[in-house]
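Researcher: Here's my situation. A collaborator sent me these components and asked whether they could plausibly form a single complex. I don't have experimental data yet, so a predicted model of the whole assembly would be a useful starting point for our discussion.
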Amino acid sequence: MSWMQRLFHAKRMDRELDSELEHHFDLLVAAKIRSGMTAEEARREARLEFGGHEQVKEDCRESRGTMLAVSILHDLKYALRQMGRNPGFAVVTVLTLALGIGANTAIFGVLDAVLLRPLPYRDPSRLVWATERFAVGGGGVISPDFAAWQSRNRVFEQIGASSSGDSANLTGVGEATRVGIGNVTVSFFPMLGVRPIIGRLFASEEGRVGNEHVALLSEKLWRNQFGGDSRVLGKTIQLDGKAYTVVGVMPASLRPAADLWTPFAMDEARFSPQSPNWALLSVVARLRSGVGIREAQSDLMVITHQMDQQYPVQAARFRAHESVEVLPLQAFLVHNVRPLLLMLQGAAALVLLIACANVANLLLSRGLARDREMAVRASLGARRLRLIRQSLTEALLLALPGCGLGGLAGYLATAILKPLIPPTLSVDLHLDLRIFTFCAAALVLAVLVFGLAPAVIASRIEPGEALRNSGVGIRTDRHSHRLRRLLTAGEVGLSVVLMVGSGLLAHSLLRLSEAPLGFDPHGILISTVQRPVTIADPNEFAEFFRMALERVQKLPGVTSAALISQYPLGPPHNGMSRLNIQGAEQASPPQGFRVTGISPDYFRTMRIRLLDGRVFNDTDTAITQPVVILNDVLARTLFHGRDPIGQRVSFLSTPTTWMVVVGVVSAQRSDSLEEEPGAEMFLPYLQQPSFSMTFALRTVSDPSALAGAVRGVIQQMDKNQPVIDVATMDDVIASAIAPRRFNAMLLGIFALLALMLAAVGIYGVMSYSVVQRRQEIGIRMALGAGRRNVTRMVVREGAVLACAGIAPGIVAALVTSRLLAAFLFGVTPRDPATFCGVCALLLVVALIACYLPARRASRVDPMAALRYE
Amino acid sequence: MNSPAKSDLPQGTLDLLILRTVAHGPIHGYAIAQRIQQISREALQIQQGSLYPALHRLEYRKLLAADWAESESGRRAKFYKLTAKGRAHLKSETEDWARLTEAVALILNEG
């Protein structure tokens, strides 16, 4: 018989075993009667001699192959019955396990995908990002310096550059659409070591002027716009009306993402230091093997210095104190999200710790409650290993569903986290098996250790003793009760850390949403139109937008409409850093300022207050006196309290015409929600035409309902003109807050989990304490203590327990909250209100957790409690 | 899993005694215990708690086979008998035992 058959025949075998042993027993009795005993005596003697019937059976079963399968089945049945008797315990334990595992698995999955896993390029550890830093402006490499780096460096195997931020209208295939273009040197893709899905990369001659009209599509564009058809190779597409030939399709994993790539033509105009038309490039290079970051940095620095003399004199000021920075490509790509991910991982790890403590706590308390049962079973002949195996089965029965659910929770959480990942990163996110195993192992270990402990202890003890000590086991008490208090206080302390963190983030979010914008976003629809840059005459842009505005204004439901060259909180802006004031020596504001072209109705549409002078009107056109409006921040910086109206300013160092300041408006948060409003200058869009303008519409009702109508107006004027970035201003603000909201929410969930777990911990300890002190409570009540006194006694004990956790928790939170400083807005990391609020909340929750046990204590019937002994 | 024998017999000896006893022909558990007791002149008391697990272990190892048959008292009882494998095992174990006791005796008698 196989063990399977044995398993199924277990019942029959059991019966046979019974009759075999009975047969023996009867013969024994008969023999004793024959030797002169009474039937009664004989049976007694025989039973003593025979030993435990059940145990002999058990031993017989064990000595056969059936033992494991059958007795495990027994164990399982018993464990399930135990679970059924106390489903609350089982549910809480399994959920605790699942949450601890799920949260950690998901967060670590992201951490691993973003920070740890190498980029999907050939030998990615040798890829570096390099930039120049100048006295003015941010990072990037100006094109003549790049050319010098490329030809003179001794540290790179290959070097490539891209200039992003270009976009064009793609026409000639399906509906006209706006595409983002990555302009890359022909060396760029070979340097990364990526291959096209189909077709080829750029050939080296395509990096020369005149040959650059070829394009590589992104996989996404290829699938959406070309239906994933491989016949796209060799086809001609139109970008802003210019013809490009498709030569290949690049894989979706490529970062930074673009819709398509064109070769960066190395023409003289952009690469000569004498030319004013430098491009600002983003440079990525592959180190020669054995070359370090520092070495590369100093090599490039030398070349950049050598280039100084080649530039015209005017550039000297700009190039003063230049430096070169080289970073591993991966570090550069993740530097924005790194602190956030580390914070989330820290929070998840705390949750895991709390979950472990909680599971330990739950199992210990249940173990104690079952002390007596263990003793009874031991005295009935259950052997030590058997008891331990039973406990093991029960522990596993909790651990396995916990792990299963944990995996599921991790999977779901991963799906939720996916959209959070910034698009600049190449991320292939999936449930990480290694970390799942790690978290599951940590928790299962906790389950096993604390699930088995009671059985191990019970099996070591003389059964009789346990039974003599009536009621709950007294032996293991003192020790493990102290352990449980410690665990619970620890849980409370860790919860304080998490709750303070999440409280600070929530507080920041609140502050942010209260920050005055300087304009009224409600009821505004924006939509952007970018005209092909190939249109030579800027006045043609202006004319197109003027006509479009006239039509849009007439749409039903629109109360006012305006044009703006860059909308508030939109993509990175155009700015200027120099301004000359007529009659002043030098008047550049210390920081740059934003320069925005608008139509006359803009301030009315956005409800921005005019503080002085006038707004633009229809007589401010290309052929009339140039005028500007300043916001009060810029006016203050430039004129220091003098009346700005009538002042004349110019961007040019030797102006031929001056612009007259005609008005001052109140400042608005245009660049970022989080920064105080910056300096801004407004020009009539007809005097400073731009190829890209955004329509801002104030509407009577739901602004998003007008999106289709606006698109209709534009398409009617030019069917090849896409409309992009269509959104309500409220949406724009919401998406500006979104990352912060997400952080706060995630940490909030962690904090809530921690709070719940701590509450469960307190509840468990207090419940047990009440059971344990039943007699004491009974005596107190018999001696005249009222229900209130008893309740107060229990609640006081709970409060002391909570405070024992809160106090060290606060100290820990004071340390850790400083790490959060970068994520805070408008609150300090030691914000007293948040700390007090957290403590109060925890104390309240602790008291609620004590309430049930306290009520139970106050209902103790003194007589029953005393009889219990 | 190995149940510790409750008799004072050295480990493995009980199996040998059982196999030897069963070698005479089909016999049930009670009779095995009785016979060992008698032949050893009451020196060896076999506890049921050791006997039955041992019987089942030997049966499981296919050294013994068992049949249900009518016993002398007229009740159905489980009779054990030696299998071919059991007989071979008994032979080699008996030889081993003889060698062992001989060796032990030599050492004990030396001084």
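Model: Some features of this prediction you could bring to your collaborator: The helical segments of chain B are 13-22, 29-39, 48-60, 84-110. The longest strand of chain B covers residues 64-70.
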